[in-house]
Amino acid sequence: MFTLAKREVFEQEIKRSRFLAIALPVADEEAAKDFIARESYSDANHNCWAWRMGQNYRFNDDGEPSGTAGKPILQAIDGLELDNVVVLVTRWFGGILLGSGGLIRAYGGTAALCLRASELVELIPTQTSFIRAHFSELALIKARLAGVEHLTIASEDFHNTGADLRLEIPSHQKDAVLRMLTDITAGRIQIADKAEDLSF
């Protein structure tokens, strides 16, 4: 799965109607709704949109015939295997009716061209783990973690004897990473799924 690296804009004219697509990577449904509210044009005839976040998706035809705008936009998102993405396609009517087939091609095509022009970023599924380590082992642990691709240290909280690290570990590497940390600390490291489960 992929998402967009940044906001992308694409515009084209089809039979005198102007179509403007704006695509954006989003973290959640609230961000998608904010984007749609902020980027919709009040002077346009239609502001049609779709978004996908994992299994959750929504689309809206905004007054176009049912199934001719929002759904083709969603199909453009899914066709490129994108996730955490919202696309808004705005239409200013040019006086020529496009018919259902023409609308589907116009909205879906404008969205697809916008998305194809975008720089994509691969989405790596991660899982969260918390570790507690002594100061004496912290440098070694961080050096080893730096060598794990796509792993991030999301937070670091220091206390009297060491630090608690919140790790975002690529799902397919979680077991191997935690085993490696146990091995290099001879089992002195604490590992938990929740921060509150850590204690010395």
Automatic annotation (TrEMBL):
<dbReference type="InterPro" id="IPR023582">
    <property type="entry name" value="Impact"/>
</dbReference>
<dbReference type="GO" id="GO:0006446">
    <property type="term" value="P:regulation of translational initiation"/>
</dbReference>
<dbReference type="InterPro" id="IPR020568">
    <property type="entry name" value="Ribosomal_Su5_D2-typ_SF"/>
</dbReference>
<dbReference type="InterPro" id="IPR001498">
    <property type="entry name" value="Impact_N"/>
</dbReference>
<dbReference type="InterPro" id="IPR035647">
    <property type="entry name" value="EFG_III/V"/>
</dbReference>
<dbReference type="GO" id="GO:0005737">
    <property type="term" value="C:cytoplasm"/>
</dbReference>
<comment type="similarity">
    <text>Belongs to the IMPACT family.</text>
</comment>
<dbReference type="InterPro" id="IPR036956">
    <property type="entry name" value="Impact_N_sf"/>
</dbReference>
<protein>
    <submittedName>
        <fullName>Putative YigZ family protein</fullName>
    </submittedName>
</protein>
<dbReference type="InterPro" id="IPR020569">
    <property type="entry name" value="UPF0029_Impact_CS"/>
</dbReference>
<dbReference type="GO" id="GO:0032561">
    <property type="term" value="F:guanyl ribonucleotide binding"/>
</dbReference>
<feature type="domain" description="Impact N-terminal">
    <location>
        <begin position="15"/>
        <end position="114"/>
    </location>
</feature>
<dbReference type="Pfam" id="PF01205">
    <property type="entry name" value="Impact_N"/>
</dbReference>
<dbReference type="GO" id="GO:0017111">
    <property type="term" value="F:ribonucleoside triphosphate phosphatase activity"/>
</dbReference>
